Amino acid sequence: MIKTQAKILLADDDFMVRSTVSRILEMFGHNVTAASDGRGVLETVNDSFDVIILDINMPDMDGFATINALNELDYDIPVLFLTGAGSMDYAVKAINLGAYDFLTKPIEDLDIFNVKIRRAIEKRMYVLQERRYKESLEDDIRKKAQQLEEQNRLLLTYSNSLENATVQLMSSFQNAMEEKDYYTAGHTMRVTEYAVMLGMAMGLAERDILVLRRAAQFHDIGKLVIDLSCIQKPGKLTEDEWFLIRKHPSVGANIIGPLGFMEREQFIIRHHHERMDGGGYPDGLKADDLDDLTKILIVVDSYDAMTSRRNYRKNLTMEEAVAELRRCSGSQFDSRIVEVFSRSIAEFTPARSVFSQEYLESVYNKGN
């Protein structure tokens, strides 16, 4: 329904025309604001007006320049042009510039004049209605986006909690395994600390250090399915026993496999017994096939194995183990990583506050 009273801005440099048209509009119940030229229109106009009526031939700033300026303001108010007799070409140009309609002067048919004004008002009402609808729709979209963001936050919190619970459960399995073997007790904890120490010495990002920590923490989880009497056996192992033990990296990777959030850790666990020259297992990968995190774990796992007591041999001192790492640099171990480790291990003091699971998990969760 068209409102009975509209707010109309009228511009004409002829005082008599302004007065006459204003009285006619007021007679039809509208509220009229008059200006003598285009600059007056631009100084007066705002989004509260429903219709603008412009004369074309005005001094300083004519109707065409005024409508161009109005288009830039983007109020989207319908503009009707007042045109004198014989100036229909002006009317066509005005329509091309975006004018809604035109009115001829002098005004002789009040009914036609009133119809054109009412149609312009109706157009303005549709514009405002559409604008309100779009604003309402945008507001609804914003609210739904906020709801979705909150749901995603809750899902992420739940996912992180589930990840932490899974890691803790797996840690319990790992600890239970190590408690059954006197000689490997503490191996996982030491390897994890060495790995984080080396990762920090190499300037790894905190999220990479978390991945490295997890991989170190579960690198031997595949031994859960290996007969511990084989691991604890004094003396050399048979070929069959070595074959069984050499399966633990691939078995561990398979255990980690279903955990989608540990894809990088799965790769490291599977390949922590590879060599730079391709002579390792299970896949015989070479240096270029391995990332730095895997190369780090290869070094620190071997170092702890050499410095830990075994049934079948005496453990090496730190100096002896470092010398062995250097001797095998380039063939078994990455030379660059061995050098960083060799410099770092002499000054290494476990700092649990830095290496804690809670700290690194919080860094990882913040990044996600």
Quick tags:
Rossmann fold; rod-shaped; single chain; alpha/beta; 5-stranded parallel beta sheet
Quick take:
It is built from 16 helices and five strands. It is an alpha/beta fold.
Q: Write down the oligomeric state.
A: single chain
Radius of gyration: 41 Å
The 3D shape can be described as rod-shaped
| Uncertain residue ranges | 352-364
State the separation between the terminal residues, measured CA to CA.
53 Å
Secondary-structure map:
Layout: E1 7-11, H1 15-27, E2 31-35, H2 38-44, E3 51-55, H3 63-73, E4 79-84, H4 88-96, E5 101-105, H5 110-179, H6 187-201, H7 206-217, H8 228-232, H9 239-245, H10 248-256, H11 263-270, H12 292-307, H13 318-327, H14 335-345, H15 352-355, H16 357-367
Helix pairs in contact: 2-3, 6-7, 6-12, 6-14, 7-11, 7-12, 7-16, 10-11, 12-13, 13-14
Protein described:
This protein is α/β, with parallel strands linked by helices. The chain has 2 domains: 127 residues, 3-Layer(aba) Sandwich (Rossmann fold), CATH 3.40.50.2300; 188 residues, Hypothetical protein af1432, CATH 1.10.3210. 59% of the residues lie in helices and 7% in strands. A 5-stranded parallel beta sheet has the order 2-1-3-4-5, sandwiched between helices. α4 links the parallel β4 and β5. α6 packs across α14 and α10 runs antiparallel to α11. The radius of gyration is 41 Å and the shape is rod-shaped. The protein starts with 6 loop residues before the first strand and ends with a helix.
